Description:
Layout: E1 10-15, H1 18-33, E2 38-43, H2 45-53, E3 59-65, H3 70-74, E4 80-82, E5 90-95, H4 113-116, E6 122-124, H5 131-142, E7 151-153, H6 157-169, E8 176-180, H7 183-188, E9 191-192, E10 205-211, H8 212-215, H9 220-228, H10 232-244, H11 250-260
Parallel strand pairs: 1-2, 1-3, 6-7
Antiparallel strand pairs: 3-10, 4-10, 5-8, 5-9
Amino acid sequence: MSLTSSAPTVTVGNIALSFHRAAAAVTRRVLEAHGHRVNSVEAPHEQLFRLQEEGSVDVLVSAWLPSSHGAYLARYRDRVRVLSPHYQPYCVWAVPPYVPAEQVREVADLTRTDVAERMTRAIDGINPGAGISRFSARMVNEYGLDRYGYAFTPGTESGFISRVERGITAREWFVIPLWRPQYLNRHYSLRTLREPKGLLGTVDDASPVISLQALDRVQPEAVARLDALFLGNEGVEEIDALINVGGLSPLQAADRYLTEHDVRLLT
């Protein structure tokens, strides 16, 4: 039930990845509960921040700060309000659970002769603007993986997911640049590798970003509810799994999660 039916239309933008759609769907339901009509747009990482900077996006869901998206937001940080985080993501490299932990515990183990001979050395990722892609390209050089034939190649989300599914089915030894929250973690029990050089960034705060111009139009109660909302990595992964494994739309998945966890949309 909404507080009012006359609240202005709000444009919510999210990065074009399924777990970002999951978080954006919950944000949309909060705004709708407070009477707003919501337009939804999505774009690759850096482009989405550009759209908000240009005034085409009112609420951006979500900025990973400070590591992954800080540079994109810095250009116009004085023109937005950053809300409290909805979850706290971080980047990892992971391997399938059948790759023995005694052989591959950390990134440097990928250069061991017995591992490099067995491991697929093509490392596939998502689009190049993602923090995990920038970090992974650097790691190949910093850990000397390139000298053993490893190469990182960015790609699409669908290609990335297909690559994991094919590899698991074939029981292939491979390493995948990943992050939490992402449904593949729970669906395939992927195992995180230690990365002692700290090249994968920090644990970020994934926060909605509202332009100051839009704050004049968004119901204060909606802003307060979004500021208090916390889904956690587990919550976003649960919604993401409902989308990718359960076959639900992002809004259907958000509705099921909100109902099953008795999450209040109104303050």
